[in-house]
Write a structure and sequence with these properties.
By secondary structure, the protein is of the alpha+beta class. The chain folds into two domains: 108 residues, Immunoglobulin-like, CATH 2.60.40.2250; 171 residues, Roll (C8orf32 fold). Helices cover 19% and strands 37% of the residues. The chain is built from six helices and 15 strands.
């Protein structure tokens, strides 16, 4: 499946901003079952300096320095991506065997499961979340089967409600109120898995949304999305699963970045020098160019957005 992606972020400032330094994670990954055909970034006003690099986890990062006085800022990311993932039919090994294997993993490379076993900046471990996850992980249950069951329970038990949380809402609060957005559901699932001793990573990206039969697709109707990657042992490796929709991460999912939690993969992060409030507007278009023969389409996807 090939997609054209357009991600536009607009800032409008109440008072003039004298400068800005930003880290942009808006370049889709060229791995994880996808191929980056092309990509470009457009900033208005034009930055004085733009540096491309990779972070510890291998995500592409663009550092932008703007020293022109401004009252608005627009960042447009354009990409063409081919996604070629094969559905996972293996239910995986006993999840407790994966726990034992993960803690004994000697590698400290970026993809090593050891980096994703412990609490991180935005994901604290909580007994109630671990107990909730543990209901899906009976003794001897295959890990993929158990992870799918946990994702299905999160989809069933939690309401997607964009106004119920904000980007910095603690996962404990979202868990207690049983409401949130994809960021919250990914954090909750990761906390539960790590509480059981299973490595789990946070994935940011996009998902293709499918309009109702007979309805036209609306420009800007897509949004950024988040899901989970759980390590299932050396034979399977990392397995992507989407708790917002209770589906495996398939050919409708496009990966931007992977990290321990949202703090590692925020699409735009940085510092503005100025005072006053700001308004933020984000629009994302994920447009399929071709449908591979026999490729599955994810049904009834929930509304998306972080």
């Amino acid at each position: 499946m090939i997609y054209d992606i357009r991600h536009v972020t607009k800032y409008l400032y109440e008072a003039q901003v004298s400068s800005a330094k930003l880290a942009l994670r808006l370049t889709p990954a060229d791995r994880f079952g996808q191929r980056r055909i092309s990509h470009s970034l457009i900033c208005r006003p034009m930055p004085r300096r733009l540096v491309r690099q990779r972070d510890f986890f291998g995500n592409d990062v663009t550092i932008v320095l703007i020293d022109t006085a401004l009252v608005d800022l627009e960042i447009t990311a354009l990409a063409r991506i081919e996604v070629m993932r094969t559905p996972l039919v293996n239910a995986g090994p006993d999840w407790q065997a994966v726990v034992a294997r993960a803690i004994a993993e000697p590698s400290l490379e970026a993809t090593s499961p050891v980096h994703f076993l412990f609490p991180s900046a935005r994901i604290a471990l909580a007994d109630e979340v671990t107990r909730y996850a543990g209901e899906s992980f009976a003794t001897g249950r295959p890990i993929v089967e158990a992870a799918r069951d946990l994702a299905a329970r999160i989809r069933r038990d939690f309401a997607y409600h964009p106004s119920s949380t904000e980007v910095f809402t603690p996962l404990e609060e979202a868990f207690a109120q049983r409401r949130g957005v994809c960021q919250d559901f990914a954090h909750i699932m990761i906390a539960g898995l790590r509480g059981l001793g299973l490595p789990a990573a946070y994935v940011s990206g996009y998902i293709r949304t499918i309009p109702a039969p007979g309805a036209k697709r609306l420009e800007g109707a897509d949004a950024s999305h988040a899901w989970v990657s759980v390590w299932c042992g050396p034979q399977i490796g990392w397995f992507g699963i989407d708790p917002t929709n209770a589906i495996d991460a398939g050919n409708d999912h496009i990966v931007l970045a992977i990290g321990r939690d949202f703090a590692d993969v925020s699409p735009i992060y940085g510092v503005f020098r100025g005072s006053g409030a700001q308004e933020l507007e984000v629009g994302v278009d994920v447009i399929p160019l071709e449908q591979a023969p026999g490729a599955a389409v994810a049904p009834e996807l929930a509304p998306q957005g972080n």
